[in-house]
Write a structure and sequence with these properties.
It is built from 4 helices and 5 strands; from the N terminus they run H-H-E-H-E-E-E-E-H. By secondary structure, the protein is of the alpha/beta class. Strand 3 and strand 4 form a beta hairpin.
Length: 184
């Protein structure tokens, strides 16, 4: 039955055209339909003028959340300055937490699933100390299935997940600041 259908389709010249251009045609169709549903690539964020020269105030200015904020600000075209006197805004990382919590334990009594937790409290002020965005808390939680047989890989995976979570939190911070400053 299938072979007879193939033979019948082979007689028509459009069958070669369909088989040749099916994938590119579907890709072109999806590229034209995707923007219609509101989808757009993330891209760089348009920052308000207050963030063009930002000082990041943190207990650990070169690691953790401060590093992620620096990367996000610079990717969006802002300049991260070395002192609050040079800045148009001071982004304060008031508190940050990063921890692994045990979610479940296997039959051997060892952890088999962890909950990765990252949280940050931030505030934005101008260089004189006037609050532009009051203190806000953000947190993110991810689950990680842990396998003792893949110890090094899972430890590395957990570290990478924390880096991604901090990057996502930094992006959320800038989005909140952007929304607050554009629509007070």
């Amino acid at each position: 039955m299938i072979t007879s259908l193939r033979r019948a389709c082979a007689r028509f010249p459009c069958s070669q055209w369909v088989s040749r251009y099916r994938v590119p045609g579907l890709m072109l169709l999806s590229l034209t339909v995707l923007p219609a549903c509101g989808f757009q690539l993330r891209g760089d964020m348009d920052l308000p003028a207050q963030l063009q020269q930002t000082y990041i105030e943190s207990d650990s200015p070169f690691t953790g959340m401060a590093r992620s904020l620096r990367n996000e600000l610079e990717a969006s075209g802002a300049r991260v300055v070395d002192s609050p006197e040079q800045a148009t805004a001071v982004l304060k990382v008031i508190e940050e937490q990063s921890e692994n919590r045990i979610l479940s334990v296997g039959s051997t009594g060892k952890a088999s699933e962890y909950e990765l937790y990252d949280a940050v409290t931030f505030e934005l002020t101008d260089r004189e100390g006037q609050v532009l965005v009051p203190a806000q808390n953000l947190r993110m939680i991810r689950d990680l299935v842990f396998d003792e047989n893949e110890l090094l890989g899972k430890v590395s995976e957990a570290e990478q997940l924390h880096v991604q979570m901090r990057s996502s939190l930094a992006r959320q911070i800038l989005t909140r600041i952007n929304a607050r400053l554009k629509h007070p």
